[in-house]
Design a protein that fits this description.
The complex is a heterodimer of chains A (181) and B (264). Helix content of chain A is 80%, strand content 0%. Chain A is an all-alpha fold. Chain A has one domain (2-175). Chain B has 264 residues and is an alpha+beta fold. Chain B has helices at residues 2-51, 109-124, 145-176, 183-193, 198-207, 211-223, 250-262; strands at 62-63, 89-92, 98-104, 129-135, 228-229, 231-235, 241-245. In chain B, helix 2 links the parallel strand 3 (98-104) and strand 4 (129-135). In chain B, helix 3 (145-176) crosses helix 5 (198-207). Chain B is globular and about 50 Å long. The chains are: A mainly alpha (181), B alpha+beta (264).
Chain lengths: 181, 264
């Protein structure tokens, strides 16, 4: 309940909703488009097609979510992106609130904890399958993913869990009176 | 008096200076915290995707296992082996101005989807596009895939281009429909349906004669920058190459074909 009440409070302000939406789109686009950066760059560098056609191509590339993801992977990728947006927005809200309030020692300690927790959450969008599977591939151990029951989707699930935890922690700090004395 | 004032101001400025210096530092730290953290997260995301060969973050292109290399910044798609009627199995007009070379894995679900996409493409552009199928089985993820690739090569060797495609289309259709038929049942059945004599097929399959062909395709896939399947290279009329990583939607492939035609 506390989380929903904080979310309601934060997202009644349009700018935080905008920040969350923007960052969620950025995160989703990163996951979908980066594997095909080379071809997107080629299309955008072409002098033979119009700018409208170039953006139409970019739009069509989002169809990859349906053709190159399992339903499960598509689901957790979207959820991670949304949580990433929410988490970032909460972090901005939290830090801004702290800047406008007088801090005391306990508030400061709690504030640091909140920021660290927020940073941890923001970073988790990266750790959910991306960093871990990336590192595994880097060291030539991509085959290890085959040993996992969900073939690496575990990291996506982990990302969702950690981001959710971070949203919870940030919400707790935002609603904590010691933080905003 | 003036001396007193200046002394007082000097003392005051001495005592305030550290505070004044500390305050902007603290504010600066606060100000920088958000953008720096977001940038750091972005760097982590980018690095992760980069080092995973663009296959992380939920993308489900099958990743190559042992020996996999991080994404090569250089474009190596020009190293793709040329298409020939003698060495390749193809759909469409072999002399078509646009050539699409696909490196695929028979047991990769996204390859199955892309197989349907490519069938649609060659039906839509029968004279403009030729599609060739090459092997890139990823054993770490799909242990039976190399055997299927060898079986397909045997079918092609014994029955020709049409038999190869009957086998391949049949295999992907079965897997796409999540047909749970075991490999040792499905492979001989499809070979038979492709018009290949069972005894000759079994001899070819057991001989290991086709291993080298499959290996050559895999080597070329890696050389050209492939780190997962499906990995495809579109070659335009001018010889310009366009990398296609994963199972792109039909509409995106169609637009790439139009671009390649325009850039001819």
């Amino acid at each position: 309940m506390m989380v929903f009440s904080v979310l309601q409070r934060v997202f009644t302000e349009a700018r935080y909703t905008q920040i969350a939406a923007l960052l969620a789109v950025v995160a989703l686009s990163t996951a979908i488009l980066i594997p095909n950066t080379a071809i997107i760059v080629q299309v955008f560098q072409s002098t033979e097609i119009s700018l409208v056609a170039k953006f139409a191509f970019l739009g069509r590339m989002y169809g990859i979510l349906f053709t190159n993801f399992t339903i499960f992977a598509a689901l957790y990728t979207v959820v991670i992106s949304i949580l990433f947006g929410i988490n970032s927005s909460l972090l901005v809200y939290y830090i801004r609130r702290r800047q406008t309030n007088v801090s005391n020692t306990s508030g400061h300690t709690a504030g640091v904890f909140g920021v660290v927790s927020g940073l941890f959450g923001v970073g988790c969008a990266a750790c959910g399958s991306v960093i871990v599977s990336g590192l595994l591939a880097l060291v030539g151990a991509g085959g290890l993913l085959a040993l996992l029951p969900l073939h690496g989707a575990e990291f996506g699930v982990l990302g969702v869990m950690l981001l959710s935890y971070s949203v919870y922690q940030l919400s707790k700090r935002i609603s904590d009176p010691l933080v905003c004395v | 008096m003036q001396e007193e004032q200046s002394t007082s101001q000097a003392q005051s400025s001495h005592t305030q200076a550290p505070m004044a210096a500390a305050a902007p530092q603290s504010t600066l730290l606060k100000d920088l915290m958000i953008p720096v953290s977001i940038i750091l997260a972005g760097v982590f995301v980018g690095a992760g995707l980069y080092f995973s060969g663009g296959t992380g973050g939920g993308s489900n292109v099958a990743v190559t296992g042992a020996g996999a290399e991080p994404a090569a910044p250089a474009d190596n798609t020009g190293k793709v082996n040329p298409i020939s009627a003698e060495d390749d199995y193809f759909k469409g007009d072999i002399d078509a101005p646009i050539k699409i070379v696909e490196f695929s894995d028979y047991d990769c679900p996204f390859c199955s989807r892309f197989h349907d996409t490519m069938n649609t493409i060659v039906e839509t552009y029968p004279e403009e596009v030729v599609w060739t199928y090459r092997h890139f089985p990823i054993e770490q993820l799909h242990p039976q895939a190399p055997a299927v690739a060898i079986a397909a090569e045997c079918v092609g060797e014994l029955g020709g281009n049409e038999a190869f495609w009957t086998f391949s289309d049949g295999y992907f259709a079965a897997r796409g429909a999540q047909d749970g038929t075991p490999h040792d049942v499905l492979i001989p059945r499809l070979a038979l349906e492709s018009g290949v004599e069972q005894g000759a097929f079994a001899t070819c399959f057991d001989s290991g004669d086709m291993n080298e062909r499959v290996q050559a395709d895999m080597t070329n896939a890696t050389e050209t920058g492939g780190r997962g399947t499906p990995w495809s290279i579109l070659i335009g009329p001018s010889g310009k190459t366009y990398p296609i990583n994963g199972s792109l939607p039909v509409s995106a492939i169609e637009q790439l074909i139009e671009l390649a035609q325009a850039e001819a």
